[in-house]
Structure formats: structure tokens, C-alpha cells
Amino acid sequence: MASAAEQLAANLNLGVFSKATELKKRIWFTLGALIIYRIGTYIPIPGVDASVMSEMLQQHGGGILGLFDNFTGGALRRMTVFALNIMPYISASIIIQLMTAAIPSLETLKKEGEAGRKKLNQYTRYLTVFIAMFQSYGIAVGLESMHGTFGPAVLNPGMFFRFSCVITLVGGTVFLMWLGEQITARGVGNGTSLIIMSGIVANLPNAMASLLDLGRTGALSPFFIIAFIFLAIFVIAFIVFMERAQRRIPIQYPKRQVGTRMFGGDSTHMPLKINTSGVIPPIFASSILLIPATIAGFSQGGPAWLQFISNNMGPGAPLHMVLYAAMIIFFSYFYTAVVFNPEETADNLKKYGGFIPGIRPGSATAEYFDYVLTRLTTVGGLYLVAVCLLPEILISDYGLPFYFGGTSILIVVSVTMDTVTQIQSHLLAHQYEGLIRKSRGRGRR
Known about the structure:
This protein is mainly alpha-helical. 72% of the residues lie in helices and 6% in strands.
């Protein structure tokens, strides 16, 4: 039998949405913030000829720079104030999360509740600024050494240009970090994820136009284009199914008597997602594998081992595919072990009197959690491998004209699902408020 929340969710309609004033304000705020972000991706860095960077990305777009440019929505190609995007903040968040599991003092902060979470967020902001400064200085030095067909990338190289470039890029990253936090607090969805997703989606119109143009000129057959569209729809549906799939472990709470009243005796479940690690394994694996391929691509005519890396570690190469799949599975296990601690979960369950039917509380429960989670992570890792390798095969073997890998698809679908879920939550809350007002009115009458 459906619960009350599920019945309300089934009855949601546009009439309920039109009355949810607070939700509409949040949606308009989110859209306005994303428009500001997209405008910033077209404001150039002073003193830089963006055509040189665009020309270089056309030559070496299959490496890590192409992946990074895809995440930034073309801001890196145009060398704008948001060229670094919010990626330093993502890197800092992952580093702090990993350090929390390894450093006892940070783990203690994590357990302190809201105060500890604020301190960890502050550490993340400081680390973001440090990473952005390091990356922006590297970009400034790299730009000074670039020369395109029509001249150098930097008109007036020197310390003043490096200083202004670092200030501009770091300021853009800090502004996007603040904008993402504002979207999370005053808008709908996770602000950081929405900024990344909007950058990826911004490349889709040009990519689809290039695909249709290839069909018009005869480079790709109409049958292949239609099959590709249906395959994309199937992959998106498969990702939605796998991201929503979960293993529900039954939890039982015993009855206890306090005075003359009986409490407890409830039955619930603990949901464990098949893909606990999310999009972190593909991001880590692709970033690590594309670094040597990018370096080798810039070192044409170098030693034999660099040529071997360039030929076998690039996207679509067999060795790249094997290493990519192995690293995705490895990081799936690694990151799942970081975010989910079976011993801690079993201790918390025992502390509140809960138990799994047929499993003894304590160490036996922790072993059961580890048993279930290991098998779920295996399925989740294989699912990530399938989703990430399929676009690589299409790009390398069939010559699709854009780099839209499995990581990008996972980010877009996951963020869309999360945003829709939050919108439904706001609508449910609004509908509950309406029911409460009606019940109060009847009570008064």
C-alpha cells in the first residue's frame, strides 16, 4: 500500500506548482544565477589572444584539456574569467573528504555536527584558493609560451600579466564558489553540481549541430545518426534506473516501555545504493589517465617511450580502455570505503537499539554490511565501466565530432534527478502546508 507521501506525489500537478510561490522564487533565483555564470564564460582575460588557445585545443582536444574545456562550457577555449570554473572547489572538497577519513582531528570535526561542518567548509574554501592560485599561475606561464598561426597568445608577457591573470582566474573561481553556495541555500538543487552541469549542457547545441552537419554532407549515414539518438535515450534511461536502484536492508527496533506507554517496535529499512561512489571514480580515472597522454601530445618528436604513451594511452586506444576500466573499479571500491564505514554504522544502529533480523548486533552486523556493500560496489563499478567506455568507443571508432564522455552523461543525469527530487520535495511540503491549514480551519469551525 502506498504511503501518504507517495499518494501526494502521485497527485502533484501544475495547479499545485502555480500556488507554490516560494518554489517559483527559488527556481527564478537559480535560473538567474546560472545566466550570470554563462555571461561570465564570455568575459575574456585581459591581454590574451583566445584564438591561440582555441587553435591548440583543436589540435590536442582529446586530452585532459578537452575534458576540462567540456566541464567549463567552453570557458577554457575562450580564455575567460571563469576558465578554471569551479573545478578547484571540487578538487578541494574531494581532498578534504579523503583527509577526513585519514586524519583523526578532521574526523572528530565531522562528528561535531553543524559547527564541525562549518569548519570543514572553511578549510575547503582555503584549499580552493590555494589550488586555484597554483593552477592559474601554471596557465599564465603556459600562455606566455604559446604561439599560434597569427602570433603569440600573450601580447605583453611578464610579471604584471602573470599577476593579473592569477588575480582574475582566482577571483572567478571564488565568485563561482560563492554563487554555488547561494544557489544551494536560496535556489533549487546543489549549486556546485548545477554550475558544472550547465557548462556541459552548453556544449550540446554545437555538438548536435556538428553531428547533423556530418549527416548532411554524407560523412555519417542517416541510419547511424538515428541509431545514435536511440542509443543515447537508452543509455540515459539505463543511468536513471541504476542511480535509483538500491538494496533495502530491513531494520527492526524493539518495543520498550516508558511508564505506562510503549515506544518502538517499528520496522524500517536502510537503503544502500548500487552506485555509492557517484561520479567520483570516472572523474579520478579519466583525469589520471589523460595527464600522460596530454604531455605526450605536446612533445611530438620526443623519445620512443613518449611516442608509445601517445599512441597507446590516448582515448580509444586498447590499453587506455583496459586501464580506464580497471581504475574505475578500483576507485569505486576506494571511495565507497571512504564514505561508508560498516563498523561505525553497525555501532550507531546498536546504540539506538536497532538490529537486522537474523543478524547479531555489533561485529556480525558490520560484517553483513561489508558483505552486501562489496557485492553492490562490484555491480556499480561494472555499470560505471559500461557507461564510460561506450562513448569512448563511439568517439574513437565512429568519429563522433564531440567529446561527450560517460562522466559528462553521468553528471547531467544525476544532477537532473537530484534537482527534480528537490522540486518534488518543495511541492510536497507546500501540499502538506495546505492540508494543515485546511485541518486548522475545520477545527476552528
